[in-house]
Amino acid sequence: MDQSLKHRLIERLKDDIDSLPPRLEAVAKYVIDHPADFGLNPIRETASTIGVSPNSLVRLAQKMDFDSFDAFREPFREALVTDGERDLGEDWINRMQDAGETGGLQARAARNEINIVSRSLRLMTPEKVQGVVDCLLKAERRFVTATRASYAVAYYFHYVGRMALPDLNLIPRHMGSAVDELVEGTANDVLIAMTLAPYSAETIKALRFARARGMKIVLISDSELVAPNIEADHVLTVAANSTHYFGCYVGAMAVVECLLSHLVAAGGDQIRKKIGNYNDVREESGAYWSPSKLPRIR
């Protein structure tokens, strides 16, 4: 199930609550204020707590384009399972460790992934985040660059980030060089560069070129010093050690996800509505596959 569905439903309820009849408004407010209880409790208990009939919950479910109350409640129930992962400890990894050669390898890889994410997010202090967000919001133009394996992370950051920063540019374009896109860069612009060891020569070249132009630099990497003569204004350091030959990117992806959350939050209601409109356009144009009965989310 789409893990963002619960949050999207809550946002839609907030948008629609003023237009709902009194009983449905009471139900919507309860769902917004108590999403965990709503996901856990049966329909009659929820209705009794709110002071309405079970039919009111069914009506709200239909208003939200669900076929039944259970279907409406399911995203909230699913979120409880996901949110509770931290309470499970690591006993499951210990059990996996004893499940033969494959289990042992999977256990080592799982521990490594968890450690990488934890360390990367721990290094992402509020002060560093605020510095990066302020830098991006104040810039006149914003560029993001990466090559080879790092390009996947940069592409995702650009794909989502352009909804909060519409003029965000992913470079290089059209199989050219990132430098081609930075020729007119100034001190009012910022370059976000992503690279993990072994560092891409093309990315290093772009970093040096941007610095020579006086551009601000945000570096997301496993080191603050990726090469001589490169001084980044802001560095988000990520862990990247792995159980295989290549660097592990789960830490970089976790940091990028958090950064995107901050950028969207900084945009407030305007950005949230823009993302909703974008999502509507994609759904209406058939960009996403859906079964015949898919809940319409705004």
UniProtKB/TrEMBL annotation:
One of its GO terms (biological process) is carbohydrate derivative metabolic process. Keywords: DNA-binding, Transcription, Transcription regulation. This is MurR/RpiR family transcriptional regulator. PANTHER family: GLUCOKINASE (PTHR30514), RPIR-FAMILY TRANSCRIPTIONAL REGULATOR (PTHR30514:SF18). The keyword Cell inner membrane does not apply. Residues 132-274 form the SIS domain. CDD domains: SIS_RpiR. GO terms for molecular function: carbohydrate derivative binding; DNA binding; DNA-binding transcription factor activity. Residues 7-83 form the HTH rpiR-type domain.
